[in-house]
Specification:
This protein is of the alpha/beta class. It has eleven helices and 18 strands. Helix 1 packs parallel to helix 7.
Length: 357
């Protein structure tokens, strides 16, 4: 039985960044990841400018910039009646970029490994047990360990939450499909958010040759959206798509004593806003700080502090998330809002810059 200070389940942005900061603080850290990296993930692939300070703290900024990516200059909104509006994004060193998750996540996981975290890939968590204040984790290959702090960073369908009886009811409200396809000629360095009958499409270049194409709709409309995409981008009938559901769900309280939730495992936001990676990185830093205080300072307040800081991170932003969700769940309503914004463009610029800042 190996003993660790911190066990982290999931090595997406939240898990890897938390592991990196924990290891850098001198905590013996293990990461349990069910997949083998590099791997793709259904995502818009966009990094909010607010991600850069955290990447600098990790001393990984240059590795990200040297990897294939696209710098995004604007976001274009397209309504059902082809109403088109484009809003400029921040420029310069802290511009928003799009980078494939297979590339970005592998960079973060490698950084956690470099800093001393033990990484166990292709390892599926099968059981959890809390005894004498510590967590026992067992994975499918028979490996078992104990840790003083457990961090769940294993996504919207969190295995940790399920094993602990904390996973909210999951409904099939909407489904997301994603593929990387050849970049259309003259697409430009922009994000396109396009409302469609039955859902929407998000499009962003992730390099000089590839486009991230996402489709979101209800189960009954997703085939129609696929047909639209096939015609619009001249895709082959055998185009492969990755899929994920649910798109949103109720939040899980982020702190339960020495069990912390981070990223989508805690709260799943509307993907239309493109803030998921920012929230994951920010929550990871907060969770690592809380873990350090629990282990090194024997703090009894660290979990409460983490919960408060986690709530503050979302405060002032969730209303935009709710507005975006209403607009994309009902594309007709979204198009009406876009028509209104055509006459009041300052409104759309305000909403965009409230998110991408």
């Amino acid at each position: 039985m190996e003993i660790f200070d911190v066990a982290i389940v999931g090595s997406g942005p939240a898990g890897s960044v938390c592991a990196a900061f924990c290891a850098a603080a001198g905590l013996r850290t293990v990461v349990i990841e069910r997949e083998k990296f590099p791997r793709e993930k259904v995502c818009g692939d966009c990094l909010n400018p607010e991600c850069w300070p955290i990447l600098r703290q990790l001393r990984i900024e240059e590795r990200v910039r040297e990897s294939p990516h696209a710098t995004l200059a604007s976001v274009a909104f397209v309504g059902l009646r082809d109403r088109y509006m484009e809003v400029e994004l921040p420029k310069g060193e802290d511009a928003e970029i799009a980078i494939k998750r297979s590339v970005f996540d592998a960079l973060l996981l490698d950084r956690a490994r470099d800093l001393g975290a033990e990484i166990r890939e292709a390892s599926t968590l099968t059981s959890l047990e809390k005894t004498n204040g510590s967590w026992k984790l067992t994975i499918a290959d028979g490996f078992a360990c104990r840790a003083q702090v457990l961090v769940a960073a294993d996504g919207r369908n969190s295995t940790v939450a399920r094993l602990c009886g904390l996973l909210p009811h999951v409904g099939r409200e909407r489904v997301a499909l994603q593929a990387h396809i050849p970049l259309p000629r003259n697409f430009g360095n922009r994000v396109v958010l396009q409302l469609l009958p039955g859902g929407y499409s998000g499009q962003a270049p992730v390099s000089g040759s590839e486009l991230n194409l996402c489709l979101v709709g209800k189960p009954k409309s997703i085939r129609t959206l696929q047909k639209w995409a096939t015609e619009r981008f001249a895709l082959s009938a055998g185009q492969q798509w990755r899929t994920i559901t649910p798109l949103t769900r109720a939040a899980v309280p982020p702190a339960h004593g020495n069990l912390l939730f981070a990223g989508d495992a805690a709260r799943v936001v509307e993907p239309f806003t493109g803030e998921g990676i920012f929230y994951a990185l920010s929550a990871a830093v907060l969770a690592a700080t809380a873990a350090r205080k629990i282990v090194q300072e024997n703090s009894t307040d660290a979990a409460v502090e983490y919960a408060a800081q986690h709530a503050a991170m979302y405060r002032g932003r969730l209303w935009i998330n709710a507005l975006a969700r209403s607009a994309v769940v009902s594309p007709g309503l979204g198009s009406i809002l876009l028509d209104f914004a055509h006459f009041q463009p300052v409104l759309l610029r305000f909403l965009t810059h409230k998110i991408v800042r």
